[in-house]
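ok trying this again, last paste got cut off
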Amino acid sequence: MLSKGFSGGVIIDNPYPVDQVDIIQAPLPSRVVLPLQQRMGEEAKPCVEIGDKVLTGQIIAQTEDIFCVPIHASISGTVASIDQQLIPHKSGLKSNCITIESDGQDEWIETQGCGSDFLHCDRQTMIDYIQQSGIVGLGGAGFPSHAKLHKALDCHTLIINGTECEPGVMCDDALMQNYPREVIRGVEILLHITGAQKAIIAIEDDKQEAYQSLLMFNHNSRIELVQIPTKYTSGAEKLLIKALLDIEISSGGFAADKGVVCQNVSSTKAIYDAVIEKRPLVSRIVTVSGNALAPINVEVRLGASFDHIISLAKVNNKEHDYRMGGMMMGVDIESTSLPICKITNCIFVNNKTIKPQPKECIRCGNCNIACPVGLLPQQLYWHAKSENIDNCMNYNLMDCIECACCNYVCPSDIDLVNYFSFAKALHNKQTLDQHRIDIARERFEFREHRLERNKRERSEMMAAKKKALKEKMAKDKDKGNTQKDKIAQAMARIKKTKEDNA
């Protein structure tokens, strides 16, 4: 049963509905490009060199950073290059990547896992398998699953997020309909690892086929399926916890602090693959949607190009705009030669249109009502526009989840989220600059302290030497006087002796 839920958010119907949510298996790509920089942590270091033969599932790059996961070859073939290439990111910058040319064989490396008898497998061993299999949050966040599980051991509630609240995205819906047994088994694995008392699989009420599929395969009394209203952004972690458990996660807090752990349903299926099937994460399901084609879901190897799967859809002959990750929170991309990565859940292909020019804010307050986390986007907008970051922070800028609900309801067509994203970046830059200034000041103050200390020590040393010299001279003087007395006494004795003899 749902709690009171959360305020704000917007109701958006799927603009590109389909009659049946199937999964197309994409053909093996002729080449893949795998970025070495993951969502967080250090850049992975290549374990292979140009010209090396690699097998599917083989680790080709890794790092000692505990928050990182290794990178696996998603096809078998030859390492063609290790260089900088464009990746699907809003920065538009290049990143170091490993390119593999396919040999067409798709020969897999031998892998290790717990098998079907996972209940007799040590929890830490299973977490290690999950890390070594490269599992991250596949809903778009990309946070390493093993790191989240480490923090949430012995939690009381496990939430599996199957909401997929971004309109038009269907990859999780397709996964739940086509792999219900694997999803349930993945939930059981997570229950065993976390020690949670119960698990809740949250599904939006417009996904009846997925709900019925999971219900048919769920025979575990500790797993509950809950349907929630189809409302954007109910899939945000903190909002979902609020809706299901009526638990507030404070600003800057984590779900694990409240004894709750959340996992995306696709990540849960990937955890099943890693632990039971002994298979690392080398592919994912991607929705290809938009008004320029008939929407499809494609399971594709990581590193394949956007072109590779867009070519499987029936696209019209008009000019197109491309967007990765959702119509609300996604990122516009200029090229379809970019590689599919772990967080690529959707690609929108839309007929090219002229975007409306933004007008002045009319202070209608719609954005304040729509904000699902209770911020005041109107005030944040004015402060962000004037680059008054201190005031932005006073209005809790960092709590903004950049869901774009404010953009959606703005009658002036102002890209509010872009201002907030800019303000966050500026805040991070100012924080970093201030950190560098603080370090420089500490170094300067330490240098001044060291120079003053050296000066004081030299002064004390010289004073000690002068004192020692004076004492030595005094002793020498005393010694000289004593010697003179001895000589005088000796001369007196000699003189007395002479007088006595005379």
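PB: full thing came through this time. Residues 362 and 412 are 7 Å apart (CA to CA).
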